[in-house]
Structure formats: structure tokens, C-alpha cells
Design brief:
Helix 2 runs parallel beside helix 4 (about 110-125) and helix 3 (about 60-85) crosses helix 5 (about 125-140). The protein contains 6 helices and no strands. Helices cover about 65% and strands about 0% of the residues. It is mainly alpha-helical.
Length: about 150
Amino acid sequence: MIKYPDYKELIESLFSTDSIRVQKLLHMSQNAFLTAIFCFFVGIYFDDLFNKEDEIEETEYETVIKGFGQLILIIIVCYYLRKLVKFIPFIFRYTETYNPFHKSKDGENLVGAALATSLIIWSTQLNMKKRLAKMIEIYKPIEVTPIPETALS
């Protein structure tokens, strides 16, 4: 037997505007803002670190190695940036009932920071975008011309 959720409770939760919800949204916003700032500067630094000079043509091998190296380094740094942001206390807490260290069961508190990380890091990685475009061009399947109908009969 399927157990359906209590829709009345879900709707009440959806439109809840109590102090806990307001502080939770403020906390998510603070984390997203701080993450965005850190990611902006880290992204600029890594884009410069993996600079792709137009005058020097990379080989296929160099393009793949540098592209994936940059990706792996960004993943590692973003992992630690997320942990670093946790050290910064929540500055908008105005009641004792809100626990800024409460871990959400469904991970909803990660949405803002994850979105900020994705948008800012991807926006700053100009060299990685060039490498990906080159890799797509190199490894794109060869266009096959269709067999004429007359050849099939």
C-alpha cells in the first residue's frame, strides 16, 4: 500500500514564513554570497594559472591533460571552499530557536551555494571553455554522408 504524504502539512510548510524559515533563507543566502565571492577570486586565479596563449598551439594531448587537470583542481578547491564557508558564523541570527548548524535531511540548504559555485566558476573559466571547444572539435564524430537511394536497389 502506498503511503501518501500529508498534503495539508506540505502546503503549510511551503507557505511558512516563521522566523526559522526566514533565518534559514538568510543563512542560505549568506552562504551563497560568500561562496560566490570566494569562487570568483579562485576562478580568476585558476583561469590565469591555466592560461591558454593563442600564439602557442597546444597539442591534443596537452589540451586534454590541461583541461582535465584544471577541472580536477577546481573540484578539489570547491570542496574545500564549501568547508571554509562553514567557519564563518551566521550573522543574521535573531532568535535562539534557529540552529545554524542543523543539517537538513534533504540537502535543501546546499542549493544556493551549489548554484553560486557552478555559475561563478563556469563564468570565470574562459580557458577551460576554449579547451572544451577544441576537444569537441577534435573528437566530434565524422559526419557520414547518407547512401543514395539508387545504390540500395
